[in-house]
Design the sequence.
């Protein structure tokens, strides 16, 4: 009798996961840190690729195909998950090693375990990803996952929507718990706002994408001009240059975090 009940339960459970797969929503939970990953299906994205012509740079359209699809972290890595990494490995972040006043444990505002971890350097993010058996996404992968198969400025449309983004106007000071705003079509949360996310441009160059709680969609520069639609640049499908610059985001800050990718074999 018990065996029959077990077989029935297994069949029901198998049908549930098959139903999720057929509905286009597939979920994988990393056994190391319990991060939920959602499936980003095969497809393509058209980007603007930088091309050097003499002393100038022009941007040409290029189609990037993702024939295999991949798994993307449903949220940014949280304080709780990073804390588990530290507890297991004894890892100390760059901020802690150099004696910074603010660290991931003390970012200067209140956080719970469900907030995205901040004051993380790119090296810290890579160390975590290696421990968790995953990686940091390349810029094209992040953009493809962020737009979620849409062809609008944002994955919800062309107009900025405060109901979908944590930013200066509605978060005031500090990050917010992950997954409290509506997800994109691939069921990825906080791809825009809350914290900037580290991405790989090439082997030695990194960048930030997605915007953060410290950003306003309309901002005045210290030298005078007013910029509107600020967040669109954080998700615009224009690839960064693979070159060193003074703007390389190696320094940790209170609005920088990361999410991970798991590529198929």
Sequence:
């Amino acid at each position: 009798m018990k065996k029959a009940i077990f077989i029935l339960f297994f069949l029901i459970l198998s049908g549930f996961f098959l139903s999720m797969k057929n509905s286009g929503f597939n979920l994988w939970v990393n056994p190391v840190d319990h991060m939920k990953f959602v499936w980003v299906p095969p497809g393509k994205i058209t980007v603007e690729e930088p091309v050097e012509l003499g002393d100038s740079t022009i941007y040409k359209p290029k189609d990037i195909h993702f024939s295999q699809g991949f798994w993307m972290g449903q949220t940014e890595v949280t304080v709780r998950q990073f804390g588990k990494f530290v507890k297991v490995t004894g890892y100390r972040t760059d901020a802690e090693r150099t004696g910074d006043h603010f660290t991931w444990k003390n970012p200067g505002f209140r956080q719970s375990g469900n907030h995205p971890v901040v004051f993380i350097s790119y090296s810290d993010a890579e160390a975590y990803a290696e421990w968790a058996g995953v990686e940091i996404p390349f810029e094209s992968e992040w953009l493809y996952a962020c737009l979620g198969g849409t062809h609008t400025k944002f994955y919800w449309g062309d107009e900025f929507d405060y109901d979908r983004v944590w930013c200066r106007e509605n978060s005031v000071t500090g990050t917010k718990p992950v997954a409290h705003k509506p997800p994109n079509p691939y069921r990825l949360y906080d791809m825009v706002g809350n914290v900037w996310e580290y991405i790989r441009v090439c082997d030695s160059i990194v960048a930030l994408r997605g915007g953060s709680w410290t950003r306003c969609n309309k901002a005045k520069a210290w030298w005078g001009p007013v910029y509107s639609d600020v967040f669109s640049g954080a998700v615009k499908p224009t690839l960064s240059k693979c070159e060193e610059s003074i703007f390389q985001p190696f320094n940790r800050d209170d609005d920088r975090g990361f999410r991970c990718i798991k590529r198929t074999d």
Notes: The first strand starts at residue 27 and ends at 29.
